[in-house]
Amino acid sequence: MNKITIKYKKGARKPSYATVEAAGADVYALLDKEILLKPGKRALVPTGLFMEIPPGYEIQVRPRSGLAYKNGVTLVNSPGTIDSDYRGEIKILLINLGEEDFTIKDGMRIAQLVVAPLIQARFEEVLIIDSTERGDKGFGSSGQ
Q1: If DSSP codes are grouped into helix, strand and coil, which group holds residue 66?
Q2: pLDDT band at residue 137, thresholds of 50, 70 and 90?
Q3: Is residue 80, in this structure, part of any structural domain at all?
C-alpha cells in the first residue's frame, strides 16, 4: 500500500474507502454554506485536503455513481487528474446534468479518488505511421 501524506483544513474529513476492496476513496465537501447547483450549472467544491502524492503516481478524480444515477450530478472533467507536483487544495468540479436543483452540503461525499501509477511517454515525430485494418475509422466505427 502506498502512503499519501495529507494536510487538513479545520473540519476536513479523511478520504475513506466504503468497502475493503473499493478502488476509490470517497472525498467530502468542506463548506461554510451549502451550494445550490441548478441544472446545467457547475461548481468548484472544496474538500479542505492538501496532498503530497509520491512521484510516479497520480490521483484520478472520479464521479460517485450514486450521485450520477440518482441526481444527475457528476464531474465536468472525468476522470480529473491530480499530478504529484500539485500542492494546492483538492477541489472537485461538479456539474448538475439532472433536471432538478441539487444542494451540496458540508460533509457530503462528492467524488472518489483513485491512486494510480503513472507512465510518461516519450513522443517522437515521424513522417509516416504504420497502417492498420481499422485505419482512421473512429467514433462508432466498430459497430458498438
Answers
A1: helix
A2: confident
A3: yes
